Amino acid sequence: MRLGIFTFFNDTGIRPAELAVELETRGFASLFTTEHMHMPVHVTTPYRMGGPIPAQYYRTVDQLVALTAAATATTSLGIGTGITLVAQHDPILLAKQLASLDMVSDGRLLFGAGVGWLREEIANHGVDPRSRGRVFDEKLAAIVEIWTHDEAEYHGEYVDFDPIYSWPKPVTTPHPPIYLGGGTAAFGRIAKLGAGWLPNSTGAQHLSEPLTQLRNLAADTRVIVQHIGSIPDTTELQRYYELGIDELLVELPTQPRDGSLRHLDAVTHQWTQAH
Questions:
Q1: Which residue ranges of the chain lie beneath pLDDT 50?
Q2: How far apart are CA 240 and CA 253, in angstroms?
Q3: Least CB-packed of 28, 51, 145, 194 within 10 Å?
Q4: b/e per residue, 161-178, with b = 16+ CB within 10 A?
Q5: Luciferase-like domain: which residues (predicted)?
């Protein structure tokens, strides 16, 4: 089981390139960051983890800009989107941006993709929240089509374009590994696409049953888990290890440089103790 970090980058916290260098120096496997292009002022959608929407959602740096900075400052660190809200993007543009990020990172992109939960945010991008799953499916399929064909075309209900040229193609062939966020509702998509799973977790005990269900559908599914909350202790790290997941991403709270580095040191210490 590898160890990585996920975080919300914003204008008050450590800069992406600086954090990426510190992670690579300490031997972390990857850096994942979130995406929210805006936050609606008036929200009735319940926050997916319960309670009010946390403050870090409101000031996020553009995900792909942050990851480009991280990629160009490092040589081996995995560069992950955790997650990209695909339904809110133009698929032709997003395909080019992600392929370009894979190129400048020399094939280190890990593409986490999701449907999105905040209905008001989705609606502001011109997408009916009731159809966001179908929009996501078509846009993701169109992106893969663009990545894998010199003359790409797609004809669907929500995405429709005649043959196009679009370069660069991803360094990783046939395309960067795709990880789908969400819960058990995503398992059908994961099995169909041969994708990995990128769930959020507050503890390993909540993942045992869903993982069994997923592996019954697709035995070899890659799994990267985003652990939300406090640093997992030795016992919790062992529980994650026993689940057979590929990588654990520990949440790094959004804070300035000194606080971020202290937190990384604490994560590293706990990881060393567990080994």
A1: none
A2: 21
A3: 51
A4: eeeeebeebbbbeebbbb
A5: 17-219
CA distance 87 to 116: 8
Rounded CA separation 163/183 (Å): 35
Find out whether 60 and 81 touch, Cβ atoms under 8 Å: no
User: Are 222 and 179 contacting, i.e. CB atoms less than 8 angstroms apart?
Assistant: yes
pLDDT score at 49: 83
C-alpha distances in Å from residue 142, one per residue of 64, 89, 124, 132, 200: 19, 12, 22, 15, 26
Structure tokens given for 215: 């592996």
The pLDDT score that the predictor gives to residue 214 is 97
Judge whether 17 and 79 are in contact, CB under 8 Å. no
- Gap between the Cα atoms of 84 and 164, Å rounded: 23
